[in-house]
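RECORD TYPE: protein structure
NAME: DNA mismatch repair proteins mutS family domain-containing protein
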Amino acid sequence: MKPAAKKTPPKKTAADSSMKQQSLLSFFSPPAKKADATVPSSNQKTWLTPQKHDATIITPENDVTHAPKPTPTQDTPNDTASKCIPLEFTPKRRVSTLQENGLGDSSSYDSDDDLPLAKKRKRLSQANPAASKKETIPVSDDDDEAEWNEKDDADMDSSDDDVSLVDEDSEDDDDHVKRRPRKKPTATASSRTKTSSVTTKAAPSKTLAAHVTPEKTTPSSPPASSPAPASGGMLRLHDSWPWLHADRRDMQGRKPSDPEYDPRTLKVPADFLRKETPAMQQWWQVKQTNMDTVLFFKVGKFYELFHMDADVGFKELDLNYMKGEKAHSGFPEIAYAKFSATLVSRGYRVARVEQTETPEMMKARGSKSKVVAREICSLLTPGTNTISFLDGSQGPFTAASFLFTLKEQISSSGKDVEFGVCMVDCSTGTFHIGQFTDSLQRDRLRTLLAQFHVVEIVVERHGLSQETKAILTHGASGAVKSELKAGTEMWDAAKTVRELRAAGYFAQWPDALKTWMDVVDPSSVRASGWLAMSALGGCVWNLRRSLIDQELLSLSQFQTYMPPDALSSPSGSSLGASILSQQYVVLDGHTIHNLELLRNNYNGQRTGSLLAQLDQTVTNFGKRLFEEWLLKPLCGVDAIHARLDAVQELIPQHALVVELRSILKSMPDLEHYLSRIHALGVLRPDHPDNRAIMYETSQYNVRKIKNFVATLSGFQASLQIVKTLKQTSWTSAMLTRWIGTFPDLKEKLAFFDNAFDKAVALKTGTIQPQPGMDPEYDDAVAAVAGIESELDEYLETQRKALKCKSIVYWGAKKDDRFQLEVPESAVAAKQPAEYELKSKKKGFKRFHTPFLRHCLQRLAAAEDRREVALKDSARRMFANFDKSYIEWKRAVQHLAVLDCLMSLSLVSGQSEGYTRPEFVQHDEPFVHLTAGRHPSLASTVTDFIPNDTHLGNGRVGSMMLLSGPNMGGKSTLLRQTCTLVLMAQIGCFVPAEKCRLTPVDRIFTRLGASDRILAGQSTLFVELAETATILNHATRHSLVILDELGRGTSTFDGTAIAFGVVEHLLHTTGYELLP
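PREDICTED:
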């Protein structure tokens, strides 16, 4: 469908147009020349390519007219002007678009991150007829941003080398390489025109821009040999390179049709690279091994995007293209947090390429290179986003996001499959590693994908079966997927152990990893853990590529993952066991989905789910724990009663709960901050970030210290919570144990409270330790003070020797300090032999002595040592804090538990008609609910009719058969029964008049009828697969609901299936059933 017609805007003056030109001009793009009617010499080059046709604008009001020039261009003589047209039409989007797209959601101190970019664009877009003179540039009335003067622009990029990334055949001279204002253009077109009206007519070597109103005819399509235009309606230079499209190969020369083709790499022709400038050669060296990544390439204070990366910037970030055929855009360093977060949230990989030396450093090392060294300093993906200090304040992170690595092995019989898994939450550094056997339906894998929020999946290339791939596609459809090469990237178990030991990540190996190691030979892996360690190897390789392996693995936060149904003990899971011994209820992926525990089935959002109904926590770490409680209900009666007792005791203490919640609400995400402080405290001398030249260091340092101070304040507030709870007498064993086991943080917090001045640190971005807090800094300060004391004593000695009290030290420069300023009258008779004249003024002479020169050398060395110690003081302070990581972590866990208990108390005490469930240890399992209501509907539907449910315990049978008309509430009652049992076993009151039951070990649901197109499974197949899971894993303590079983086939066959399933469940397992 064609877009609606738009009226052609009124013609604007040249001044108005020039103020609206797009223009983040970097030294990658050639500068525009001043308009001049003089005929150029034969050796001069123009920025215009002669075309055979003129671009035209067709409007409803006018006939065909010549198109106005959209960007500043160099004028040519009159005899050639008719043959030259602008090469591109670059649309300009307003800065407000960034805010509309959520790019303005940063921390308070980052609210103006994009201001320098807007200033630069505004300043560069103005007319500047006299570049050598400083003058005020008029600013358009529709923008409130101040312009930058020419001097500021020159200073901004003076730190980078004067090397252009523009093709050498398009450069005028080296002087035009630097960023500076464009010459005043003669065109009157505005580049702020909407993109919807831009179409392109192009050939590989020529570009023709035309602006046509939607209702009129458009230019003809590009020739068949031309690639499709890039974003923005323009055919860019990189769109015409066959080796990047039709003839693309990886670095080993393999075509995409080759099974071993590596899409992450690209073979760039050598003859093409030879024609590129040295800086662009450097860009291609990085890009050709990271074709799956968007490069933010640092040049001075700006991150630049080129070619296909610039297309992404235009499409996703609303960045404008620079002038020329080469796709090119950029933004200032301070806006990195916004743009990187936006791309990562949309599934892109983002690499930050930093300058690791200055031009002065390059000259000092005697390099023949024409460009400064650059290195990848970070690689962000949805699964490896650690939220570092460069990223500012993002979030809130109410749910953990996991990087999931999977290794598969199918048994020789083909009857089952075994998986090794490794999941890591990079924001907290928590690893889950495990190995388990699964059915051919991959039920345990489905449950894992339902329990964990997987945002990135890493697998071995050619290492997964088609069935497993279908499960991953269906269960984590939004996750980014990566394939690693077997052996070199997806390590086997033996290589994983060797790499972990060689890197020295652990001072002591975590217990979770020791369980997979051989007892006799600790360097080898058990057969039962071979796949798990291989999955860990693939995860570690991926973390190394992202340059975050050291900071995450050194936390040693490893946990063993076991499928929920595997945690059941043999006695607890057997059909005849009367008492449950397992710790948690098993909820598989079908149950989590059918009961809408985490997200509703309407639009997949949190609204309307059971989690949204029950979760009233106020901290991010509390929200993450509450979700874990919801997915892991308790099975032990004593544990359930302990949680219910705590909730019941908190209900009447409403005022106290409100006070404690207000304190918790003021806390930052302490769990995330602990991992960030650990990363900042880790000594990583070889990490490229240590060599990066950053221009906003002071602001980054303030971010670090602000987070650190916020963390200390949060733990200080936790002491107030403990103090407040101690003032009340508690009878609940859980609350009493909570108070008694909360770690003692008073001494630790007192140490950091006196360690440095927080107000000064937040203002300057530097932690200056107080005396006695940092031995290394104290030694450097003492050395400086000692030398200064010697100089003072020497001054007194010279005063006495010359009998002149007016002798003083003079000088401020580092090498000329401490000159003895002596009146000429004092040395007129006899000047000491060691006095060396340095300078003089009327009536005074200034001297140095060998002693003073020796003291100056010692003082300079001591001051340098003090400066180094001061720069590293923040890291040492973070490392000192991290020494007590276990205590800090335990305190956060306690606070999360309290937050969850108070959430349950609010739901239980403030909701109408909620009652405490009664759990019974009984030989015969049963569930008795009187006037039960669905928690999600009871609060919104005023005329909801309560229902009684009685199963088991002799009074009624263990099966209930429901029938009735459509829309009668049958499915609601099925879900309601399971939901109330689940609520009771997480320790929450339930919406019913009475609830009495024995704990259940599993909840099974078989609801609805739908196929799985992505998995290639029909409706009947899905029904039978889910039913088979129930038949294979249900026990007498399981609660099962079946809704219209057999509807996926004919009535007769469906009835036979339903009858057979019910008969088997009743006579074989005898558990509670609601069909």
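COMMENT: The domain at 586-614+911-1073 is CATH 3.40.50.300 (Rossmann fold).
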